[in-house]
Design goal:
Chain A: This is P-II family nitrogen regulator. Chain A: Belongs to the P(II) protein family. Chain A: InterPro entries: N-reg_PII (IPR002187), N-reg_PII-like_a/b (IPR011322), N-reg_PII/ATP_PRibTrfase_C (IPR015867), N-reg_PII_CS (IPR017918). The structure holds 2 protein chains of 2 kinds. Chain A is an alpha+beta fold. In chain A, 18% of the residues lie in helices and 33% in strands. Chain A is built from 2 helices and 6 strands; from the N terminus they run E-H-E-E-E-E-H-E. Chain A is elongated. Chain B is mostly helical. Chain B has one domain (10-295): Ammonium transporter AmtB like domains (Ammonium transporter fold, Orthogonal Bundle), CATH 1.10.3430. Chain B has helices at 2-15, 25-48, 53-57, 65-83, 95-114, 122-150, 155-169, 178-203, 211-229, 247-278, 285-290, 292-295. In chain B, helix 2 runs antiparallel to helix 10. Chain B is globular and about 60 Å long. The chains are: A alpha+beta, B mainly alpha. Chain A binds chain B through residues 38, 48-55, 59, and chain B through 89, 91-92, 146, 150, 152, 154, 156-157, 160, 196-197, 200-201, 210, 213, 307.
């Protein structure tokens, strides 16, 4: 297979994050970017009360995990995520898959699949 | 003198709750100086000063229900009405700090109320007990109201209930019995809750921290309650109220409350009108959106992205 770079975005609830991180580590993914996000979808929001003020909160806090893979098959990443995160209820989240033009490691100038690899001596 | 100075300092701070997020800082400083001199000082003299007309009338105000709470609460309402609503009302930015603040207030209020006995004696101890009882009772009644109305008891509600109870007992702390303070707190919490939840929504004014709802209304109830529950057996330097056979005191208390309300409202109105005539007192729309911490003070107070 050619050096195809793929980005996988996983948006899911905060509670499952640690479990997901471990599962991804087990299949060979140790690098990721994680952000706290707010979003809406099928999950409706809730009401919050602050003295005389009632607010309809429509954005739900979630966590977004961004991974770029080359060596590790994308299907494996998606299946792993689904296995960890699936409950069957709404609020499980979504996975988005994109193509990536290039990856550059800033410290060494490596590009492409080499930039995603960690050699043994770095561990 | 230092004790009295503390009262003068804390009172205008309450007004800051009403005008939050939309008043220019230099104008606020000018307002503080004018207000303390023209509103606080006269009322303090009427109620506590030698020769003060409310004192001579026999009005009772142990630790400043009129002087501190009614004056600042009503003035805050006037200021909130004159400044107008905030364009964007967000949610509280830090509830843990709010709860911590309520705890500090409760602790400090012991000094405020019990200290107003100006000695360590039976009256001071009575004030200590009534202060604590009223605060706790008010927190409970506020929570009951909240649960009845929204099925949820909030920490902000408990904190607000505590403050309302502390305010309500302020005029009567050294004049009423602990049992009376229980009633004062229970009623105070419910009355302040109702004002903030129903009256404020109906009238549509933006009193950001409910200075009027907690301090104004709480102080008014406390002043009237003192007229009902005061007991000479608790404090011989005081008087007895309605339930102890002296309905006259209630009338005197109502006069004191009304004069504090009217005077605070009128003079605050004039002060703000004059300041605004010289230079617009309200921050601009862009400044308000960016946040006065950045535009007035050059500091980012809260940091991060908030939605």
């Amino acid at each position: 297979m050619a050096d195809k770079l793929t980005k996988v975005d996983i948006i899911t609830s905060k509670g499952k994050f640690e479990e997901l991180k471990k599962a991804l580590g087990d299949i060979g993914i140790s690098g990721m970017t994680v952000t706290n996000v707010l979003g809406c979808g099928m999950q409706k929001g809730h009401k919050e009360y602050y003295r005389g003020l009632t607010m309809d909160i429509n954005l739900v806090p979630k966590v977004k995990i961004e991974i770029v893979v080359c060596e590790v098959p994308v299907d494996l990443v998606v299946e792993t995520a689904k296995k960890v995160l699936h409950t069957g209820e709404m609020g499980d989240g979504k996975i988005f898959v994109y193509n990536v033009e290039n990856v550059i490691r800033i410290s060494t100038g490596d590009e492409g699949r080499v930039a995603l690899q960690y050699s043994d001596k770095d561990k | 003198m230092l004790f009295q100075l503390m009262f003068a300092i804390i009172t205008p701070a309450l007004i800051s709750g009403s005008i939050a997020e939309r008043m220019k800082f230099t104008h606020w400083i000018v307002f503080l100086i004018c207000w303390t001199t023209l509103v606080y000082d006269p009322i303090a003299h009427w109620v506590w000063g030698a020769g003060g007309w409310l004192k001579n009338l026999g009005a009772l105000d142990f630790a400043g229900g009129n002087v501190v709470h009614i004056s600042s609460g009503v003035s805050g309402l006037i200021a909130a009405l004159m400044l107008g609503k905030r364009r964007n009302v967000g949610k509280p930015s830090n509830l843990p700090i709010t709860c911590l603040g309520a705890a500090i207030l409760w602790f400090g209020w012991y000094g405020f109320n019990a200290g107003s006995a100006l000695a360590i004696n039976d009256v001071a101890v009575n004030a200590f007990i009534t202060t604590n009882t009223s605060a706790a009772a008010s927190a409970i009644s506020w929570s009951i109201c909240e649960f009845a109305y929204r099925k949820k008891i909030t920490s902000l509600g408990v904190a607000s209930g505590i403050v309302a109870g502390l305010v309500a007992i302020t005029p009567g702390a050294g004049f009423v019995s602990p049992l009376a303070s229980l009633i004062i707190g229970l009623v105070g919490g419910a009355v302040c809750y109702s004002c903030i939840t129903f009256v404020k929504a109906k009238l549509g004014y933006d009193d950001a921290l409910d200075a009027f709802g907690c301090h104004g209304v709480g102080g008014i109830w406390g002043g009237i309650a003192t007229g009902i529950f005061a007991w000479k057996a608790i404090n011989s330097a005081g008087a007895s109220g309605l339930i102890h056979g002296n309905p006259k005191l209630l009338g005197i208390q109502i006069i004191a409350v009304l004069s504090s309300v009217v005077y605070s409202a009128v003079v605050t109105f004039i002060i703000i009108k004059v300041i605004n005539a010289v230079s617009s007192i309200r921050a601009g729309e862009k400044e308000e959106q960016v946040g006065l911490d950045v535009t007035e003070h050059g500091e980012e107070a809260y940091g991060g992205i908030q939605m």
